[in-house]
Amino acid sequence: MDKNTIIGFVLIGVVMFGFTWFQNRQYNKQLEAQAQLDSIAMVDQMVAMAQDSLQRTEGYAKTNVVEKATPVYKDSLLTFARNSAEAKFATLSNDKVEIMFTAKGAQPYSVRIKDYKAYDSTDLYLIKPNMSRLGISVYAGENVNTADFTFDVVSCDDSTLVMRLPFSNGGYIQQKYSLPKSSYKLSNELSFVGLEGVIPANVSMMDIDWDVVIPRLEKGYKNEKQYSKLDFYFSGDKKPEEIGRGRDASKSINSKFKWFAFQQQFFSAILTSGNEFASGDLSVKYFDENDADRNLMACSAKLRSEFRLSGGSATIPMDFYFGPNDFKLLKKYDLKYEKIIPLGGWLVGWISRFVIIPCFDFLGRFINNYGLIILLMTILIKIVISPLTIKSFKSSAKMAVLKPEIDKINQKYPNEKDAMKKQQATMDLYQKAGISPMGGCLPMLLQFPVLFAMFRFFPASIELRQQKFLWADDLSAYDSILDLPFNIPLYGDHISLFALLMAASMFIYSKMTSSQMSDDPNMAPMKFMSVWLMPIMMLFICNNLSSALSYYYLLSNLITMLMTWVIKKFVVTEDKVRAEIVANENKPKKKSKWQQRLEEAQKMQEQMMKERQKGRR
């Protein structure tokens, strides 16, 4: 065997050994987890049987009356904490966020974002009171879920809160929360202290269940729902994965992941493990638009996390983020949080992150009016892409000059069987005039990533939230000049003036450019699509989207029409185009590869036609 073969066999052996080792390790973990679940189920069954026996012997069972059994735990302090009616509240607050906690479960009770308001100008509660339930389940001789017990408040100051659930042996479960100044990040340390002999040595898993109801915070339900979702992130990945953008969804994750986010359009509740979550089931379900409590979505995370007691104690660090989806702010955490903001794929996202956002932020340092900022950004973008625009218009102008000649070719080859001849004659004419077939289309296609980047940026930009401009009271939501008493399918129950003006400008511009198209009947569908169908489609699409987006497209169309007039009047005049065509006719012509292939296809078609005619004879 040669050297390469030996190396190949060695690598195969290493891969097989590694795979076998990994599978055995995962299998052992599954056995441990299953043993824990079996133990919990057995204890629950024994407790239920004991409660049933206690009810019978003490006469608690009454005819035709069903009463809820009082939970009884082997640890008397747990029974006391479970049945305690008193649950104190404590608050951690800084200049950014106010978080109220309840001793019942030692968990967040409500979250208010201080420097923002809901659309109706009321306080912005990312989590309304009693709309969150966080429970930690662990087997400690019996199943213990922290959400069921009232903790003791040990200490509380401006930035730190400590609560404990005591056990009879002197040990306890502790929740410690810390909120730094000027921060949306809440640090959490879950500790098991002095529980040796209480929590069995073979228990290495705990369950974390967090259920949250996120309320509606924005003007338009459809827009808010469309940009709300649930995200989760695997360490080392370039970006998080997402589920449920605007629709009910669930996801089972059977491998380790770092964090997950309950994401509303502009605000998020993120939970990050100091280590990693071992597995989890995530789900999101949206409320109806007419929900009486104005709730947006119900989010759920059922997680499993590894932990090991050392000397009867263990500490599990976690971090909460309750705050805005601000790109610069989230990026500072260096955990890919900023990737939850939907800025598009790699090309569109790159344009958004490295061109649009820096430009937007730079102008925002000097100008407070965001409508004016969008205007200046549109002008800058148009200036940057003006060489492409001029090239595109020059190609269109040449085609307009050649339109009579093209019409003659269409009349010469009216039949479909002569389509190849007609195309070849047209290409010969374009070559003589120095026109590239893609000269008018390619520059426009290169502008599409910028248009898509804007389409992504404006609805997701928290800077535009509740910013007023002209008749729009919120540039991040739709504007309305007339609220309709009924709902039009796909359109909505209002009329957006920015969307209407944008569609009108698109119609006018398409009408202008369609006059330069050939009169070939085959071009009729394209004319109809550009002049009528596209403006109507964009009107329906943008009526419910961000008014800033419709405003940008309106400005883009108006500036393009102005540039077209200037270019046609002073840069690419008809006389200049004709002179260039004449000059190109005297130059030696070299056929492009595309034209060579077209000629070959034409020859093959002619040959096939001749063979068919011979066969018929």
> What's the CATH architecture name of the largest domain?
Distorted Sandwich
Oligomeric status: single chain
Report the uncertain regions.
1-24, 26-68
- Helix percentage: 40-55%
Can you give the mean pLDDT? Answer: 79
Largest sheet: 14 strands, antiparallel
The CATH class of the largest domain is identified as Mainly Beta
Tell the overall outline. elongated
CATH topology of the largest domain: Beta-galactosidase, Chain A, domain 5
Q: Structurally, how many domains make up the residues? A: 2
Total number of beta strands: 20
Strand content: 15-25%
Give your account of this protein's structure.
The protein is α+β, with helices and mostly antiparallel strands and 617 residues long. The chain folds into two domains: 76-342, Beta-galactosidase, Chain A, domain 5; 349-585, no CATH class. It has helices spanning 3-58, 76-83, 221-226, 327-331, 346-364, 370-384, 386-401, 403-412, 419-433, 441-460, 497-514, 524-542, 547-571, 574-585, 593-616; strands at 89-93, 97-102, 107-117, 123-127, 132-139, 143-145, 152-156, 160-166, 172-178, 185-193, 205-215, 229-233, 241-243, 249-253, 257-263, 267-286, 295-306, 314-324, 482-488, 492-495. Strands 5, 6, 7, 8, 9, 10, 11, 12, 13, 14, 15, 16, 17 and 18 form a 14-stranded antiparallel beta sheet that branches. Strands 1-2-3-4 form a four-stranded antiparallel beta sheet, with no helix packed on it. It has a two-stranded antiparallel ribbon with strand order 19-20. β8 (160-166) and β9 (172-178) form a beta hairpin.
